[in-house]
Amino acid sequence: MAYAFPVDLYIYSNRIVAVLDCPGMTPAVELLPDDEVRVTGERGARADEGFMCPPVVFRNVGKYGREFNFEGYDTSKLEAELDNGVLTLTVPKRPEPKPVMVSVVRADRQLPDQGTEQVAKAVAKAHVEALN
After folding, report:
1. Choosing a second label site near 130 at 20 to 30 A (CA), which of 14, 52, 80, 112?
2. Per residue in 31-54, pLDDT tens?
């Protein structure tokens, strides 16, 4: 990628917003593994003919790109909007994981001479007792 899109990032409590300048092009947004997002685009030179001399060009012509790592954000719910050459990416924050309780079964409730089926029943019973 030859040129990087100019970008502003806005971080809110529930989302992150990236605003990229993309005048004269339709950018492509690609979701990558590990919460990464790639934005690419290309601006070509004007195809005007009939110049008396070569044109003076101050705008960058060629390929553009920018990659983001939105760790902690849910890129599968990314929203992209292009308006007047400005691309706005909105990515919601991933909800905090809730703790999960795991019941612990005491190993000494099993008798060594019991069969596999009886041990399984004893473990299941202990599990039910632990939940109550």
Report:
1. 112
2. 999 999 999 999 887 766 666 666
The count of domains in the chain is 2
Overall pTM > 0.70: no
Exposed, middle or buried, 48 (CB in 10 Å: 0-12/13-18/19+)? exposed
**Are 18 and 82 within one domain?**
yes
Give residue 81's domain range: 3-92
C-alpha 79/C-alpha 19 separation (Å) is 12
Q: Are 92 and 73 in contact (CB under 8 A)?
A: yes
Strand pairing class (3-4; 62-69): parallel
Question: What three-state secondary structure class fits 77?
Answer: helix
Same domain, 15 and 69: yes
